[in-house]
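User: Please go through the entry that follows and flag anything odd:
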Amino acid sequence: MKHIGIARIAVTGATGLIGSALVRSLRADGHEVVRLVRRPARSGDEVEWDPARGHVDTAGLEGCDAVVHLAGAGVGERRWTEAYKREIRDSRVLGTTAIARAVASLDTPPKVLLCGTALGYYGDTGTRAVDETAPAGDGFLPSVCVEWEAAATAAEEAGIRVAYARTGLVVAREGGAWGRLFPLFRAGLGGRLGNGEQYWSFIALHDEVAALRHILDTGSLAGPVNLTAPDPVTNREVTAAMGRVLRRPALLHVPAPALRIALGDFASDVLGSQRVLPSRLLDSGFRFAFPTIDAAIASAA
């Protein structure tokens, strides 16, 4: 893919699964990357920020052509207590508000603010396929996603192109849902979750990074863009594909009640079904390197 000459790019969440891969990709192509950190800056490529206080050292953002905002508390990191649900919401809404206001205040704002959000926006869609034209769903995660995206209003009002990368389940060894699945399946302990009929909208880490860069480079892409492979599959199909690619048995079954006991409210996200399509990404000319579940798993294995 041909990339335009975006020279200086700021990234929040630069140490996370997606952020670290994006930073490597950008730097490999010669771009200057500035990482936002939640401590005093220790080097010239760091900028201090404190999302909880709404503080960003805006001097460090001067001259940036783009800002990619990926920071936020992990949805699957802990059991969803009321306190952790507040942390999930605040880390996204307060962080996005701080970044949007910071870039809007610059004398020369960046051309684009790319905010990573989530397919959780759509809620449980069952077997119904949805794309960016669908409304928000019901429940905790959809309500968080609505507030999360609305928090970037200051940047939009300043005339900055703002895009929302609604990302699916990223297939990678290094982290996320698949970071937990790979060791289990390699040990022969993999299996379907619940009845296995719920749809999982997935994307290979390679394609996730390529899609983020595509959004940065495509000046017409603004608003929501689904980052997920074109053919969502059920959890039962994921289980079968993991067994095929890793050549391990995948015969176990974790019943829904056990997941609810173990995960609390987060179980609804694991057992929920999201059949989401990347219509705007495909319409803009993006092509997936790993469009199928077998290819995505093999790319990470």
